[in-house]
């Protein structure tokens, strides 16, 4: 039997991407798929990031599948536990659980050219074969640990923000947090009232805008449940509001200055002390790094038990941190809110394509794909949230749904034409990436005067999409056959 009559499909990961793909496959009548999940429950980043205060920074009604609106969101910006519940609900409602293999980390993938099949190594070495592979491993799933001298010598409790230890009580402890990105700015307000003393180590101040979070009361929830059209309208309004932030990334536009003015006004209102305010004032263009939304971060820094440390960390000692000015701060707990390996080492595990091509090598310094989804030399393999598909301004679920639609169209093209393999042409991929590079060069991510997780050490932006989500949706609505080699 030809693979294309009933393609066996391996989906890796059960976050928004993996689950969204599985649902759409099922709806299309393609149910011979298996989801491989490394952990013992679904959820991806919303399972892993369970730190106090973890929540979305895109409004809940937009940060959900378009086909599965959720009138039960209790806040404008959903907290982590509610998003995880939503994903569990989708898993059950669409009957995905029998398709999931838990505790099954994929270690490697190799394309068997003779059989036109992928061989995946799972867990301790088990091999499984699949005609098509779809990676939904996420771009922000591997914690980045800082290279600070002495870190390994620390004798207290140490963990990364994405590996929060719920059993470790912080009450009455002296705690240090390294980093002031999206994770830290959510953690600080929650733990500051519980700890004895909090030292927050900031290397670069973030731009912070008020989040304007609010409860969605029972009346509003009832309204959305009774009138789905109202919920749809609400989603549209949020969508266009967030899409309207796109000009922020094109630094020559005055709108960007307006956002900066708003953030500085929020800072001035929140922090009366001029010295502290100076430390918190960014010295690079807004949008160059992720813009943070928070109502309670600045107020938390005013607490008497919170110290913002801007002196560089020199070393971590057995019992604390030593800064460049020679000051030692003993701590019980050290939390690394130091982000993720996103721009480099993008390949989630070793992937060997045609002719022995090793993707993790090819991508080591410069990951690239076509529409962030397919890669020359790697047939029948699809990346969800692949290179240059992340956003600085709107909902990743929207981008994921665009990619899922594109992958589905690729699979349908294979089946309809009775093809065994589909592989993007090198020329199409090169053209696409050349244009991407030119566009990225004109954005604030290139010109804004900051370092960020968006870029590799050499300064190449391998993570962000430099256009609107509407453009991405339009370009991924269907496959252009001329861009692909299709083989029977
Ligand atoms: O990580 P980050 P994050 N010494 O990379 C500092 C998403 N997210 O986990 O700026 C000292 O942003 C580093 O300093 P600097 C969101 O897309 C979303 O906070 O490099 N400091 C920085 O301050 C986000 O952008 C939500 O100078 C060191 C911090 O650590 C992405 O995840 C919530 C250091 C790292 O910040 C990552 O956010 C959370 C060192 N050696 C995350 N190394 C939502 O709201 C690093 N730092 C949905």
Automatic annotation (TrEMBL):
The lineage of its organism: Bacteria, Pseudomonadati, Myxococcota, Myxococcia, Myxococcales. This is Cyclohexanone monooxygenase. Pfam families: FMO-like. GO terms for molecular function: flavin adenine dinucleotide binding; N,N-dimethylaniline monooxygenase activity; NADP binding. Keywords: FAD, Flavoprotein, Monooxygenase, Oxidoreductase. PANTHER family: FAD_NAD(P)-BINDING DOMAIN-CONTAINING PROTEIN-RELATED, L-ORNITHINE N(5)-MONOOXYGENASE-RELATED. It comes from the Bacteria.
């Amino acid at each position: 039997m030809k693979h294309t009559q009933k393609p066996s499909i391996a989906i890796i990961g059960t976050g928004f991407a993996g689950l969204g793909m599985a649902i759409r496959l099922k709806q299309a009548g393609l149910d011979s798929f298996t989801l491989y999940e490394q952990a013992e429950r679904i959820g991806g980043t919303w399972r892993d990031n369970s730190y106090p205060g973890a929540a979305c920074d895109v409004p809940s009604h937009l940060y959900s599948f378009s086909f599965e609106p959720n009138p039960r969101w209790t806040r404008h910006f959903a907290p982590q536990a509610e998003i995880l519940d939503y994903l569990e609900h989708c898993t059950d409602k669409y009957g995905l659980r029998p398709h999931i293999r838990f505790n099954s980390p994929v270690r490697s993938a190799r394309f068997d050219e003779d059989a036109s099949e992928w061989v995946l190594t799972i867990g301790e070495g088990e091999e499984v074969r699949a005609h098509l592979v779809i990676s939904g491993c996420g771009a922000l799933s591997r914690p980045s640990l800082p290279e600070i001298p002495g870190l390994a010598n620390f004798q207290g409790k140490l963990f990364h923000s994405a590996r929060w230890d719920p059993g470790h009580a912080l009450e009455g402890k002296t705690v240090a947090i390294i980093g002031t990105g999206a994770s830290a700015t959510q953690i600080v307000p929650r733990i500051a009232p519980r700890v004895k003393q909090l030292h927050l180590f900031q290397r670069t101040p973030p731009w912070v805008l008020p989040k304007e979070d609010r409860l969605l009361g029972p009346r509003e929830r009832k309204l959305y449940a009774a009138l789905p059209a109202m919920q749809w309208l609400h989603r549209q309004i949020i969508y266009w509001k967030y899409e309207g932030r796109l000009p922020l990334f094109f630094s020559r536009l005055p709108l960007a200055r307006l956002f900066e003015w708003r953030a500085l006004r929020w800072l001035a209102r929140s922090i009366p002390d001029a010295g502290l305010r100076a430390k918190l004032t960014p010295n690079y263009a807004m949008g160059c790094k992720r813009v943070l939304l928070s109502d309670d971060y600045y107020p938390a820094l005013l607490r008497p038990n919170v110290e913002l440390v801007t002196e560089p960390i020199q070393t971590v000692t057995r019992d604390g941190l030593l800064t460049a000015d020679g000051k030692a701060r003993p701590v019980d707990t050290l939390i690394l809110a130091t982000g993720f390996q996103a721009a480099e080492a993008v390949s989630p595990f070793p992937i060997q394509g045609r002719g022995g091509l090793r993707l993790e090598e090819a991508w080591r310094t410069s990951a690239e794909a076509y529409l962030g989804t397919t890669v020359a030399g790697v047939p029948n393999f699809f990346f969800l949230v692949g290179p240059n598909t992340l956003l600085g301004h709107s909902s990743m679920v929207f981008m994921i749904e665009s990619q899922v639609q594109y992958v589905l169209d690729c699979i349908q093209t294979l089946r309809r034409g009775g093809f065994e393999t589909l592989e993007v042409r090198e020329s199409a991929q090169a053209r696409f990436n050349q244009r991407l590079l030119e566009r990225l060069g004109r954005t604030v991510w290139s010109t804004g005067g900051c370092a960020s997780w968006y870029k590799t050490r050499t300064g190449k932006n391998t993570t962000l999409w430099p256009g609107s989500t509407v453009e991405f949706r339009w370009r991924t609505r269907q496959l252009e056959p001329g861009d692909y080699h299709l083989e029977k």
